[in-house]
TrEMBL record:
Segments forming domain STAT transcription factor protein interaction: 2-122
Pfam families linked: STAT_alpha, STAT_bind, STAT_int
Record protein name field: Signal transducer and activator of transcription 4
Source species taxonomy: Eukaryota, Metazoa, Chordata, Craniata, Vertebrata
Molecular functions per Gene Ontology: DNA binding; DNA-binding transcription factor activity
Natural source organism: Aotus nancymaae (Ma's night monkey)
Length: 508
């Protein structure tokens, strides 16, 4: 069975990992259509041999032409269009640098082998076991259940708000009717009965207002507990798993489920906020002594607004950590003046935010490095194949600033591979009258100026991510804790598996 056929039989959580490293540099359509031919070529050798790489690129284009001829006979217009576009992209991008396409394809095949090995690895090491102990499946179901319950409760208070509006309109109509009655009629028994009816309606209105506010208070309390005790904890688990995945471990991708929960909660909170605004309008039109709305609404609105901000703040995440396309197995190691990619995602997917959220990337403020390239982009739903609200920076380059003494810059000088930096991302969201400034950061990265520093830099990345859950400890190496032997052996197993899927080191 071909490697590609094995990949296609993986569970969805592994297929999501495969999807992450196929892009315009090497489209998945080509991997699928030319699977057997691609696997029969020695791309790794070609990545270090320009003549061989040139021949392979020419043969790849010939293979594409043959596929074009086949699908043209089948009159598959969409596939014909895609293949022509892909051929044009490949020829334009790699014509002057054929070794690069060999590097890209070799890395993709190696990543497939790593994922296949991880999927077939029978024994878990201590790091994986520690993650499994905080198993997300049961808690995830509880989170989804509670989110659905909150959504349902908000729908019920929506009906309560509408009922209050109708009740108040009826009271207002009856009250105005009495005001227009003649003086003689106001002393009649009918008039007295109408006054009693109005009093009963007012009592009912007061009771319903208090009841609605009580229900809303309970929803706010339950949402607060859910966010801080379960949802944020679920997100932190994912971030820890992402740390482990960066050094070769398995990634249990639950972002789609988290996005669903974050989005439903945001929709519920915005709906609750509108309900509180409606109650204020009702109270402005008609109030009375002891009216609960003026006494409670302001504090409740502040709590809802805070929850919305907190939800958005936590929903802004780095979905794919900084990585040079030429070294996909060495994320978080960045070489100066070499492009890297990084992907951001907002877990609150609202159509109103499409193309409205601009994200700015920068490097930590020690003034030693700057980012060159397009560092401001808008998030869009179309940016991602899974329909998430995201943005991917593909053309950022770290550049070392000139020394304070002037003269030549520091590019090319020896860099300390235990010095950590982070890529910071900022955005401002304006939605439904709220303005929220959000910020998130990548995991710590190590800068290098020469590929000879890559092994030491990668060792620093492994040491950091094995040893700490803290995603922003840039002074970690001032007093680094020791890594245990079992942890290091487990990481070695992951690294070994990524380059040779036939063997793995089993850790007891």
């Amino acid at each position: 069975m071909s490697q590609w056929n094995q990949v296609q039989q993986l569970e969805i959580k592994f297929l999501e990992q495969v999807d992450q490293f196929y892009d315009d540099n090497f489209p998945m359509e080509i991997r699928h259509l030319l699977a057997q031919w691609i696997e029969n070529q020695d791309w790794e050798a070609a990545s270090n041999n320009e003549t061989m790489a040139t021949i392979l690129l020419q043969n790849l284009l010939i293979q594409l032409d043959e596929q074009l001829g086949r699908v043209s006979k089948e009159k598959n217009l969409l596939l014909i269009h895609n293949l022509k576009r892909i051929r044009k992209i490949l020829q334009g991008k790699f014509h002057g640098n054929p070794m690069h396409v060999a590097v890209v394809i070799s890395n993709c095949l190696r990543e497939e082998r790593r994922i296949l090995a991880a999927a077939n690895m029978p024994v878990q090491g201590p790091l994986e076991k520690s993650l499994q102990n905080s198993s997300v499946s049961e808690r995830q179901r509880n989170v989804e259940h509670k989110v659905a319950a909150i959504k349902n409760s908000v729908q019920m208070t929506e009906q309560d708000t509408k009922y209050l509006e109708d009740l108040q309109d009826e009271f207002d109509y009856r009250y105005k009717t009495i005001q227009t009655m003649d003086q003689s009629d106001k002393n009649s028994a009918m008039m007295n009965q109408e006054v009693l009816t109005l009093q009963e309606m007012l009592n009912s209105l007061d009771f319903k207002r208090k009841e609605a506010l009580s229900k809303m208070t309970q929803i706010i309390h339950e949402t607060d507990l859910l966010m801080n005790n379960m949802l944020i904890e679920e997100l932190q688990d994912w971030k820890r798993r992402q740390q482990i995945a960066c050094i070769g471990g398995p990634l249990h991708n639950v972002l789609n489920q988290l996005q669903n929960c974050f989005t439903l909660l945001a929709e519920s909170l915005f709906q609750l906020r509108r309900q509180l605004e409606k109650l204020e309008e009702q109270s402005t039109k008609m109030t009375y002594e002891g009216d609960p709305i003026p006494m409670q609404r302001t504090h409740m609105l502040e709590r809802v607004t805070f929850l919305i901000y907190n939800l958005f703040k936590n929903s802004f995440v780095v979905e794919r950590q900084p990585c040079m396309p030429t070294h996909p197995q060495r994320p978080l190691v960045l070489k100066t003046l070499i492009q890297f990619t990084v992907k951001l995602r907002l877990l609150i997917k609202l159509p109103e935010l499409n193309y409205q959220v601009k994200v700015k990337a920068s490097i930590d403020n020690n003034r030693r490095f700057v980012l060159c390239g397009t560092n401001v982009k808008a998030m869009s739903i179309e940016e991602s194949s899974n329909g998430s609200l995201s943005v991917e920076f593909r053309h950022l380059q770290p550049k070392e600033m000139k020394s304070s003494a002037g003269g030549k810059g520091n590019e090319g000088c020896h860099m300390v591979t235990e010095e950590l930096h982070s890529i910071t991302f900022e955005t401002q969201i304006c939605l439904y009258g709220l303005t929220m400034d959000l910020e998130t950061s990548s995991l710590p990265v190590v800068m290098i100026s020469n590929v000879s520093q890559l092994p030491n830099a990668w060792a620093s990345i492994i040491w950091y991510n094995v040893s700490t859950n803290d995603s922003q400890n840039l002074v970690f190496f001032n007093n680094p804790p020791p890594a245990t032997l079992s942890q290091l052996l487990e990481v070695m197993s992951w690294q070994f598996s990524s380059s040779n899927s036939r063997h793995s080191i089993n850790i007891c």
